[in-house]
Sequence to fold (174 residues):
Amino acid sequence: MSNKTLQSLFHYKRWADGELLDAIATLDAQQYAEDHHTCLRIFNHIHVVDAIFKANLLGESHGFSATNTPETPTLAALRTAIGELDGWYLAYVARLSQADGDAVLSFNFVDGDKGRMSREEMLLHLVTHGGYHRGAIGRMLVQCGITPPRDTLTTFLHRSEPKRRGEDGSPFAG
Fold:
C-alpha cells in the first residue's frame, strides 16, 4: 500500500471519528442514558485499541490489561483523547517509509497471546476496526431517532476532493 493511501485512510479516520462524535453529542444523555453510555463505551474501546497499537508500533509497553477502561470517559474527554491520537497517527504515517511499513513486528495482545504483523497491517487494522465499531454506534443512534453521519470512505473522498466528482467543471477522469 502506498504511503499516500495510508495518509488518506488516516485523514478519513480522523474525519469519521469527528463526524460520529458530533452525532453522539446530539443524543440526549438523559432520555437515552443507557444508549449514550454504550456509545461512549464502544468509542472508548476504539480509542484504547488505537492506543495499544500505537505502543505496538513503537515497541513500547501499552499498559492496558483489557481493550477498554474500567471507567467511561466523558464525551469531551474522549473527543480530546481521540483527536490527539488521530493527530499522532497522521504524523506517524506521513513519515513512514515503505520499508518501515513492510517491517513485521512482534507484540503481545492484552490477553497475553503473541502476535506478528507488519506496521502496514497494524495500521489497516485500526482503520477497519474503527469502521466496524463506528457502524455499531451508528445503528444505536438510528434506534434513538438520530440519523448517523455518512462516514464512508467514498463520502470523505468526495467531500475532501470535490474534483473527484468532476465538480470543478472538467470532465471526470476516473
In short: The longest strand covers residues 104-108.
